[in-house]
Here is the input.
Amino acid sequence: MRYYIKIIFTSIIISLLNGGTPIEYSIVLTGGYDNNAMRFSKDEFQEASYDMALMGGAKTFDSFVTRFRFSANKSLIINDSRSVKMSTFYATSDYRDTPDKKYWSGGIDATYRWGSYKNLKYTLRHLDQFYLRHYVDRDISMDALASCKFTDRNQAITLTHRLSRYSWMNIGSGYLQRYYSRPFTEFDLDIIYLKGKINYRLKNIGSVGLQIDRGRANNISYAPLLRPSSFDRSYQTIEWFIPLKINKKLIFINEIGVSARLETRKYDAEDPNDPLHSGRSHLDSKYDLWVKKKMSENVSLTFSSRYRTRVTDSEYAWVNDLKSFKQIQLWFNIEWDLIYDKY
Amino acid sequence: MINTKIQTSLVLFCLMLFGCIQPDQESLWSTSVEKTINTSGFSRDVHMQGDTAFIAAGQSGLQIWNIDSEIMIDQYEGFGSADLEDVGRVYYDDLNSLVFIMDQSKIMFDEYDSTLFEAPTPIGDSHNEDFIVLSDTLDTFYIYFVDRDEGDGFKWAQYDFEEVPFIGEIWQMQSDGQIRPSSPMKGLSHGGDHIAVAGDQLGVYLYTISSIGSTPELVSRIDTEGNAENVNIVDDGVFVSCDDAGAYFIPIGSFSGDGSSYRFAEDLTVDHIAVKDDMASLSLGSKGIALYDISDPTKPEEKGVFPIGYTYRTVFWKDRLLACTREGMQVVKVEK
Here is the structure.
């Protein structure tokens, strides 16, 4: 509840800001489908078929999803070339067939702009109680399952600058706190990352980009005390992101895009007592496709899909089988863009 | 326009203020093994007398150690001309200076002096599971012991140290008794005027004894899930270790009342429970130990499972926990 209060409090502050400019806001309603809501591996599908407890309260592996998102932003003009833009959003997600997977997220951006493609942005994101699935809490039990959820708080500073007439770059750094709810606090992570992105505007086509994120996750709750969970889950990560967006000279639709996001993660653990993490790495690949159609000046429809696959590499074949999975997600959303101008 | 800088600063201040989150805290305890007494054989049981540990060291016989200095004082791998066979239980009667052990063949005792186990006195037979020794008068002790053979069941005897013509002073059995239950009996515990007996598939028996050495009178039996393997009487109840079925706390009053019991650690195989103040230590065999906060014994709260090695039983000693494991006897520090 305290997070709701924080978001609401900050939103009110933003909405009360003076500046003689309107507040732009949008409402997005989304319906979706996730064919593997708990990210089960092939082996786990079989295991869960005779041990339903693995699925928490869910009765199916897949789930329909509904989402609601509200966002608002306001620009504060300092002079002709300089401005400050504040924006915020709040979103809720409800996996209808996965009872534990109901969460909200929110965020605030503050951007100081001093020219075209020249700005400095502070980003704050919050993801609250995101449910993964049920796991055995080995701190206290051999087979008692508990709901595994985490909360993210992500802060980043990004500098954007023009490189040429057709290109610009983003560089920045971030601090992501990923803290698990009891009883899985042994997985708590502080992740420091650097990111860089080059964007190129394709004349009469759209834009393309290349982004690289490099991060170090520190397992802050690891302590070499004698517990079943006393293993170091720290890791190194590097992620490549390549988006291609086409929004010029299209027939019927207004935008079509594809992107690939490839994350390689390598765990530090070399403890033979922790075969699940020892010497493990994985490649997590996400391929997105989206199509956008503006129905009017204020209303647009977007269809998007994601194919995700994670391939795990470990010395232990059973770990490879356990931690690899495939997932398909489909989304359809409708967005209303609105303006409130009391001036 | 005038307020832009002030209010932007205010917003940024709020963002910074709320920027970070704090992790959840778990109320688990932690342990660290401070030292391991290398007993060569499996450490199966320990009895502490001050800093001296009488260790039932399995096939390495009986070992006597000073825990502080980690020096082995004595080791006994045989009695008379025979070998001890996997010593599993040990007890030292300080009043009469007697050492009791139980191996696979029998219970036996002898005076703790330079001739220890040259000619021990045997008790029981090869199917003994557990024993307790009670003594409050010099030159007399009472032993209660149980047997997995249903025909033997629950037995007790009184021994006095007395002069026998032509032989000299020896420990002589004065009287004995027996209860034949309908199930094997596995474990024993004494507290106040009660004796509890683990009755395998039939649960737990509670007896009263009017005085040390008197004949036990059955109060009642309470069934448990799984097989009741061991018992531990505390002030207000009985902790029961159940094979494949966790553990129970059964208030003393339940045996004469409604038979209510409080189960915990359901998914663990519990071999033994040691209790001190608000802490219970459950021995889990290959899984090590599990610690529980028993401030309210009717609602034990799990505080962690700790894989310290194959653990047979634990004993609280001073502010430490002694764990009898296959790796030897470990001195474990518990941090709340």
